[in-house]
Design a protein that fits this description.
Number of domains: 2
Radius of gyration: 17 Å
Domain Tyr recombinase: 4-189
Keywords: DNA integration, DNA recombination
Structural class: mainly alpha
Strand order of the largest sheet: 1-2
CATH class of the largest domain: Mainly Alpha
Protein name: Integrase/recombinase XerD
Order of helices and strands: HHHEEHHHHHH
GO molecular function, one term: DNA binding
Number of strands: 2
CATH architecture of the largest domain: Orthogonal Bundle
CATH topology of the largest domain: hpI Integrase, Chain A
CATH superfamily of the largest domain: Intergrase catalytic core
Number of helices: 9
Organism: Bradyrhizobium shewense
């Protein structure tokens, strides 16, 4: 897949991925991995390095924003991402089951999963589901594409999508956004 971008995921693909996670040995952990990718746009390395201190408010409860700190972000491009309600529900459930300290995503041995382990988890999931051209970056591309398509509804701009993605350049953000052939057809019919 060298030189090709990871494919974006449809709603049905995401549902299949969440179903796959629910049937795994670690359903809540794996659900969080999927949701952090598709609902927060995190990279595999950011998912692996995310700690509870980046998610909890001062009272120790799951906050309203996820703080991707510079030390875990690519090119030290930390950012704040509002937590999607579906992700928040999973985080609250995970918080009830642990002390809320250390890494959010833990390996079977108890320590943090490595970025490569996250990449491999996605690879195995997509292979099992028969999704061709998908990788650990598919959820991130899906998040950025969906955000770009909906930003006008929220009264925002592509700059807001750029900030959520943690990109230094708007051109980088634009490369992540998939076109929509149905929208292109509708647009051409309006001309």
């Amino acid at each position: 897949m060298a030189g090709k971008q990871a494919k974006t995921l449809s709603t049905d693909h995401i549902d299949d991925l969440l179903f796959f996670a629910a049937r795994s040995r670690h359903p809540l952990r794996n659900r969080l991995i999927v949701l952090l990718s598709v609902k927060a746009g995190l990279r595999a390395a950011e998912i692996a390095k995310l700690t509870w201190t980046m998610l909890l408010d001062p009272s120790g409860e799951v906050g309203s924003t996820l703080e991707v700190r510079d030390e875990i972000a690519k090119k030290r491009s930390g950012r704040s991402i509002p937590i999607h309600p579906e992700l928040r529900d999973a985080l609250v459930e995970a918080r009830r089951l642990c002390k809320g300290q250390g890494p959010l995503i833990r390996s079977e041995r108890g320590g943090a999963m490595t970025p490569m382990s996250i990449v491999v988890w996605f690879s195995r999931a997509y292979e099992e589901l028969g999704f061709k051209g998908c990788s650990s970056h598919s959820g991130r591309r899906t998040f950025i594409t969906r955000a770009a398509r909906s930003v006008h509804k929220a009264g925002g701009s592509l700059r807001d999508v750029q900030l959520l993605a943690g990109h230094r350049s708007i051109q980088t953000t634009q490369r992540y956004i998939d076109g929509d052939s149905d929208a292109q057809r509708r647009l051409v019919s309006l001309i």
